[in-house]
Design a protein that fits this description.
The chain is built from seven helices and 19 strands. By secondary structure, the protein is α+β, with helices and mostly antiparallel strands. Strand 1 and strand 2 form a beta hairpin. Bound molecules: 2-oxoglutaric acid and fe (ii) ion (FE2).
Amino acid sequence: MALRIRALDAPFGAEIIGVDLSCAIDDSTVAEIEAAWHRHSILLFRNVEMTPAQHVAFTRRLGPLHIMEPLEFNLPGFPEVLVVSNVEKDNKPIGMKRAGWGWHSDGEDKGLPNAGSFIHALLIPPADGDTLYADTYAAFAALPDDVRRKIMGRRACFSRARFHEVYYPHLPPLTEEQKKARPDVWHPIARRHPHSGWTSLYIGRWAYKIDGMADVQAQELIDFLKEFATRPEFVYRHKWRVGDALLWDNRCTQHCATPFDDATYRRHMQRTTLEGEVPIMAEQEVFRPAPTLV
Ligand SMILES: O=C(O)CCC(=O)C(=O)O
Ligand SMILES: [Fe+2]
């Protein structure tokens, strides 16, 4: 399969051209896609027609899949496919509504945050509902020196229990059992990518404490880092077309779904999710080399 990789009209990211995800893909093409993914952090495929089974099969070539909980938002018959949708059937939501309306990376509040996510757009509203992606390698490299020094070797606490009702006010509160299943976790703020070796700024909306720092100072630093990581110069705004499929790396990007008129229009996406690893603390600052694509 002749594959072409083209830069997105954006500060980072690439488009993969010439791959049909509904066909069998040979190992060398998968290896090229994977290398491009590690190089560019987000990959866009256009005009994708793939069934849920093909979606799962392709993603599995990149690593083991993660099954999202609660299970009720997964596609019937395909537990590996999360439905991100405002569509209702028989007055019941068929997927997760308003998922990710706020900067985050998937699974940052879990001990094993998800390595990647691959979303396929099937219904798109005529306006709004874009998704923003922030390049957290670039953010790390651009941090003021004193801040970079301050975060090296430190961990932040990410808490689902503390913020669930803040970010998901339209969902039922977590039960005690769910809270136990999602304990607070501590992750390195300067994170080394297991494949590229580059350092990213790892922070997000579930973070609220930093080890070895007084709470007030920690909160100030977290607020600064969250704002910094998502400054416009690091952000790509994806305007969806039906058939787009976007693969992102949660270890070196953040994303944020933006609102749309969800009382009037339907937006329906299906997502597979890659299992992750324990985040690695960066021992030293390793900056990503300048992009080479055109
Ligand atoms: O709806 C979107 O564009 C993305 C939602 C989200 O955060 C996710 O699926 O991880
Ligand atoms: Fe997300």
